[in-house]
Amino acid sequence: MAEVLCVGDLLIDFVPTVTGTGLIDAAAFRKAPGGAAANVAVGLARLGVRSAFMGMVGDDPFGHLLADTLRAEGVDTSPLRFTAQARTALAFVSLRADGEREFLFYRHPSADMLFGPADVDTAAVEAASVLHFDSISLASENPRAACLFAADRALAAGRMVSYDVNLRLPLWSDAATAAAGIREGLRKAHVVKLSDDELEFLTGSREPAAVRSTLWHERLRLVAVTRGAAGSTWLTPTAQGDVPSVGVTAVDTTGAGDGFMAGLLAGLLREPDALADPARLDRLCRFANIVGALTTTERGAIPALPTRASVEALLAAQGDPALPPSPSGG
C-alpha cells in the first residue's frame, strides 16, 4: 500500500515552448501532465516513496494519458476515478518576462470538479501513513467536500495530514472566499507548506512570524514557508529555522512548490523524529529546497521532477549529507 495518498487535481498543463512570454504572445504550447496533487505523487515516487493518487479525470484521451503517466511513474492509481460526464481539466501556464506566471483554466466543469465524497476510497485513506491535499481542490464544491471528508477520515485513523496552500485566484469567486476556503483546509493539517506570496495573501505579511500570530493551530506540527531561490523557513511549535536553496538555471517554475512538498514529505517519512530536532529539520528542508530547485530546470511539472539520485548528486556536490533510505527501501 502507499505511504502517501495524494488527493486533488490531475490535468494537462499546456506550457509555451519559449519561456518569457505571456499566453497571448506564445507561438506554441507543449502539453505536460500536471496538477498539484499529482505532481507531489510523482515527485514522491521518484524519490523512492510509495505513493498513490486519488481524484477524477475524464474518460477521454487526456484522462487516460494522465492515468498511464502516473502508472508509468510507479504511482498507484487504483483510487483514481474516471467519468464520462465531463472532460479532463486543461490549464495553459506561462512564465512571463517579468518572472510572473499566468494561468488560464478550462474547467466548466472539468472532471476533477465532479469528484465528491462518495468517490473517496476510504480504505486507501486509512491505509496510507500520510494524506496530502491542497487548496486548489477546495475552490469547487464537490472536490472540497471530498478532500475535507478524506482529511477527517485520515485524522480519525490517526494518520498525518499534509496540506499545500496553492493560491489560484482565477478558480475562486473572489479573494475573500479564497482566503476563507484555504484556511478551512489548513485547519485540518499537521504539516503545511505555503509560499511567502501566499503567506502575504492570507495574513498581510511575508514574515514567517505571521504564521504563528495568524495561522497557527494546536494540530500543526510543521509549517514550511518557501521563498523561491532564497530557500525556505520552517516553523514548529517551539522552533524556527531558515534554510538556503541552491543556484540553478531556472527554465519553468511550474511545479517547484510541489517538488518541495514531495521532498519534505519524503524526508519526514524517513526521519519522523526530525520534527523535534532543528538540525535534522534543516537537513530535510535543504533536501526539499533542492528538489524544488531542480524542478525548475525543465519545462512542465511532472516531466521536470527529479529522481532521488539526481538530488543526492547535487547534495554531494554541495557537500551536504544524503538522507537515510526511506521505510520502503527507496
Automatic annotation (TrEMBL):
SUPFAM superfamilies: Ribokinase-like. It comes from the Bacteria. Pfam families: PfkB. Keywords: ATP-binding, Kinase, Nucleotide-binding, Transferase. The keyword Nucleotide-binding applies. InterPro entries: Carboh/pur_kinase_PfkB_CS, PfkB_Carbo_kinase, PfkB_dom, Ribokinase-like. The keyword Kinase applies. GO terms for molecular function: kinase activity. Residues 1-307 form the Carbohydrate kinase PfkB domain. Belongs to the carbohydrate kinase PfkB family. This is PfkB family carbohydrate kinase.
